[in-house]
Amino acid sequence: MIEIILIPVICVGSLALLFGVILGLSAKKFAVQSDPKVDRIISVLPGANCGGCGYPGCTVFAERVAEGKASYRGCPPGGQSAAAAIAKQMGVDAAVTSRKAAYVKCGGTNENIKRNYIYDGPKSCVSASQLATGGNKTCRYSCIGLESCKNACPFNAIKMVDSIAVVITEKCSACGKCVKVCPKNLIEIVPDRNTVRILCNSRDKGRLVRENCRVGCIGCLICQKACKAGAITVADNIAHINYDKCTLCMECVQKCPSKVIKVAEFK
After folding, report:
1. Does the predicted TM-score (pTM) go above 0.70?
2. Which residue, among 186, 185, 189, has the nearest Cα to 199 in the 3D structure?
3. Hey, which end of the chain has fewer CB within 10 Å, N or C?
4. How many domains does the chain have?
5. Distances (CA, A) of 38 to 20, 32, 98, 112
6. Is 239 helix (H, G, I), strand (E, B) or coil?
7. Which domain holds residue 122?
8. What is the phi-psi region of residue 154: left when phi exceeds 0, alpha when psi lies from -120 to 50, beta otherwise?
C-alpha cells in the first residue's frame, strides 16, 4: 500500500525537478541583459514616474537617454541636479538650466469676476467648459475652478484659492500634466526665477473685459510701451511676456492700469 502511494509522489517530484532545471536553463539562455548605463541613469532619477519627460515612466526615459533619443535634461522633477547626474553617466557636460514651474494665467477670483449662474454639474472643468457659456463665470477665458488641474497634479502642487487654481511653486516639478487637462489653456510653464506674471488670458476687447472682470487685460499697450527691454508684446488683445528678454525692471507692473501684471509670491 505504501509503495502504491510513493510511486505517484516520486513521479510528481521528479517532474517538478525536471521542469525546474528546464526553466532555469531557459532563463539563462533567453535572459535579456540590461544595459548598465540605463541602470545608472535610473539610480539618479527621482522615481516619480510622473510622465513629465514624455515617456510612460522613469525606466523608459532612461532607456531613451541611453539610446541618445532623449535629452539628459528631460526630467522635470529632477531638475538641474538630475540633469547633471545623468550627464555625468553619459559622459557629457551638463549645461546649467533654470528651474521651471507652472502658473495659472487668471485673476478671476470671486471678488473680481461675475457669474452667470450657480453650476451644479460634475466636478470637472472639462464638463463645465462644454456648456454653451463655457462655465458659469462671465469671462469665457477664466479659470473654472473645479479642480481638474489639482487632481491631475501628482505632486500636490496646486491648491484652490477663491475659485482659482494656484500653483505652489516649491512643489511644482513642471511635469505639464496640469497644462494638458486645463480646457481653457490657462496654465503655462515658465522659468521660476522670473516672478513677473500676467494673470489674464482673455482675448476679448477691453470694454467686454471690463464688464466681465475687474482685473482683466484690456490690451491697452501701456505695458508694451513701458518695457525698455522689449519683453512684452500685445497680440489678440492680451499681453505676453518673453521671459528670455525680461529684466525684472517692474515697469510693466507699475504702469498696468488694470493691475493684471503681478509679481508672483512663491509659496
Report:
1. yes
2. 186
3. N
4. 2
5. 31, 13, 25, 51
6. strand
7. 100-263
8. alpha
